[in-house]
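Bench notes, afternoon.
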Amino acid sequence: MIGFLLQWPTIPTLIMFPVLVYVYARLARSEDREVAAWFGGQGTVYAARTPAFWPKLRQRPPDASRPQGGARGPHEPAVRS
């Protein structure tokens, strides 16, 4: 959206910028609720450790509950018992 505003700095794009930011933010929150409903606890854990709009510049220390062997498969549980 910022790139769009910089590329076409006109009155209509300036007026539409806050409107579109609001609409996209609402859409993202709605999709977050759908993911939480669909995936349950795994979706909530993912949302808690993944930034919503702005990426984090510093990395967090590794989570002790997560296996160190790489990425999990799509059907592998988040926490092993």
